[in-house]
Amino acid sequence: MSAPPESDSARAGWRIVRFGAIDSTNDEARRRAFAGDPGRLWIVAEEQSAGRGRRGRIWASPRGNLYASALMIDPCPQKAAPQLGFVAGVALARAAKDVGAAVARLKWPNDLVCAGAKCAGLLVEGASLPDMRFACVVGVGVNCVTAPTGVGYPTAVLTTESGGAIEAQALFERLTERFDEALGLWRAGEGFEAVRSAWLAHAAALGERVTVERVGRRREGTFEGLDGAGRLLFRGESGIEEIESADLWILPQSDGSPVAASSASLAREGPD
Question: Structural domain of residue 226, as residue ranges?
Fold first, then answer.
């Protein structure tokens, strides 16, 4: 469980609750949803004791980095909820550029990478509430001061183009604005094509060689883009196919750029 919040505030029409330390901002958002919170709420913490990424993987959460989760109630038809990962990705990429990290790119479906190394991740979760409402939580974790080691793929700290530090609070302030903006573009799913186009404008490895792994089978091919539902368009030996769920790695380029890995899939978690 979490400690009492240290402060409350509001920004861009959203309430903000801040914690010094918490188990997980996503878990706190979920608890508040089940307690009747109306949504449009950001939970922010300086550190987490039980942060997690996709598939329950541990997300190291020391102080100095950004840990934040947005709670929304009935933001869209449930079938459109997985698209929120792309909405949040667009918002995060734009916010990163706003604070000077113009080299940060999006890697399908839910990572932000710098020079091929992961510097941020997104986690979308949904739950059906007892009163028939539907809660969506979008968690954001960004390496602003430290990056985890020993995770099996390159990681990095998000910096400006010149290598300068990016302060977590400054990034969060831009993220709240950009997320609200991206939600307006998305229009509860009706505007996903605009979101898809914006996501591709920030995409990493578009047209480049990647490796995908599904059910223990690895294959190399080319990342050709996203289809209308956000699935990966992968060109392999048999032509282009649509992939909804896979582990994905960006292969080293001729300039020696490192490999970035994503053990991820579209956020297809249904209601609990």
Answer: 209-264
Measured CA distances, 77 to 83, 96, 234, 268 (Å): 11, 29, 28, 13
Lowest mean pLDDT among 7-16, 73-82, 105-114, 220-229: 7-16
- DSSP three-state, residue 73: strand
**Would you say residue 255 lies in a domain?**
yes
CA 26 to the chain's CA centroid: 12
Neighbours of 166 (CB within 10 A): 21
Q: How confident is the model at residue 235 (pLDDT cuts 50, 70, 90)?
A: very high
Q: Are residues 151 and 52 in the same domain?
A: yes
92 and 178 share one domain: yes
Per-residue model confidence as pLDDT tens digits over 195-212? 999 999 999 999 999 999
Task: Output the CA angle 246-90-41, nearest 5 degrees.
Answer: 100
Cβ neighbors of 53 (< 8 A, separation 6 or more) are 59, 121, 123, 141
Q: Flag whether 140 is in a domain.
A: yes
Q: How confident is the model at residue 4 (pLDDT cuts 50, 70, 90)?
A: low
